[in-house]
Amino acid sequence: MKLLVTGGAGYIGSHVVRAAEAAGHSIVVVDDLSTGVTARIDSEFVHLDLSSETAQLTLENLMRKHEFDSVIHLAARKQVGQSVEQPERYYLDNIGGLANLLLAMRNSNLKSLVFSSSAATYGMPDVDSVTEDYPGVPINPYGETKLIGEWMVKNAKVWGLKGVNLRYFNVAGCAVPELNDTAPLNLIPIAIAALKAGKSPIVFGEDYPTADGSCIRDYVHVSDLAAAHVSAVDYLTQSERPFDTFNVGTGTGASVFEVLAELKIASGIDFEVSVGPRRAGDPPKLVANVSRIEKVLGFSAKHNLKDIVKSAWDAS
Ligand code: WQD
């Protein structure tokens, strides 16, 4: 099929593009290059900010020209802390960008969309394993934009849109070094950058109600996440689609200390770990229940935490 991938020059987007091409799809990428890198992609590329005034018309023309079968929408800002500081920027880019995309799709009769959502839609769940019907309340503007985005996708059913929301848990690792996550904004790249700078990684709090006191997350390899997008595109071609929202994780949690222990093995460095104060807004535990995506999409993650940390270290 012919796919439009927004944000396809990004860390996650470029993995999705490669996986979709490997599955036989042809791709056009749209990206504003705010964090994306064109060196990561070899497909047709259009430089575009989806929240810009010209975005809707540019997208419509592109859609009429290429007659895409589906859109994978990844382009968005995703830094939780930044979203607290600059909420308007997040509403403009994440919600405004999606609105322009949906208007363009509606006007060019393009009715298939995979939407990049997030576990941040759950806020601070008080369950060990989060299912998609958990009544989450986002606790930051980033998470709000992803939940609102899911509502926008759902409401577009009125003009026939077939949409699916993928709620990413903690994405990390890389398929090949050139696609590595170079932005030190999440635990594993932050810890690796600290080591490379001769510093100790910092654990944000060790007094949480968990086995070792540090927060637990569901780390999923970006290659597995990319594969889930290919499955989601196929799912949208089916007439029977019982669900429109799926967690993408492993179903297994790992604490910060456990991640850093894997980093010691991958790096061969028995580094010191510093413990700092808690970070505001961190839920003690956020682990996906993945039974729905396994049952309905036939998807399960193939990579474990060791693979994730090793691939990130080897690429650094
Ligand atoms: C993971 C754990 C930190 C850095 C965010 C977004 C979420 C999703 C994934 C997009 C936490 C701890 C971190 C450090 C630490 N993104 N930590 N020392 O906050 O779980 O989720 O990224 O969809 O939407 O919210 O990821 O990597 O920032 O933190 O101890 O130097 O590591 O406290 O417990 P997070 P993270």
Question: Can you walk me through this structure?
Answer:
The protein is an alpha/beta fold and 316 residues long. It folds into two domains: 2-171 and 220-248, 3-Layer(aba) Sandwich (Rossmann fold); 173-218 and 250-315, Alpha-Beta Complex (UDP-galactose 4-epimerase, domain 1). Helices cover 38% and strands 17% of the residues. It contains ten helices and 14 strands. A seven-stranded parallel sheet has the order 3-2-1-4-5-6-11, sandwiched between helices. A three-stranded mixed sheet has the order 12-9-14. α5 (141-155) links the parallel β5 (112-118) and β6. The chain is globular and about 55 Å long. The structure holds UDP-4-deoxy-4-formamido-beta-L-arabinopyranose.
Which consecutive residue ranges, at least 5 long each, have pLDDT under 50?
Answer: none
Secondary-structure element sequence? Answer: EHEEHEHHEHEEHEEEHEEHEEHH
**CATH-defined topology of the largest domain:** Rossmann fold
Q: Fraction of residues in helices?
A: 25-40%
Task: Name every ligand kind in the structure.
Answer: UDP-4-deoxy-4-formamido-beta-L-arabinopyranose
| Overall domain count | 2
In terms of quaternary structure, what is this? single chain
**Corresponding CATH superfamily of the largest domain:** NAD(P)-binding Rossmann-like Domain
What is the strand arrangement across the widest sheet? Answer: 3-2-1-4-5-6-11
Residue share in β-strands: 15-25%
The top level CATH class name of the largest domain: Alpha Beta
Question: Rough shape?
Answer: globular
Measured between the Cα atoms of the first and last residue, the distance is 34 Å
On the 0 to 100 scale, the average pLDDT is 96
The CATH architecture assignment of the largest domain turns out to be 3-Layer(aba) Sandwich
Number of strands: 14
Q: Structural class, from secondary structure content?
A: alpha/beta
Radius of gyration: 19 Å
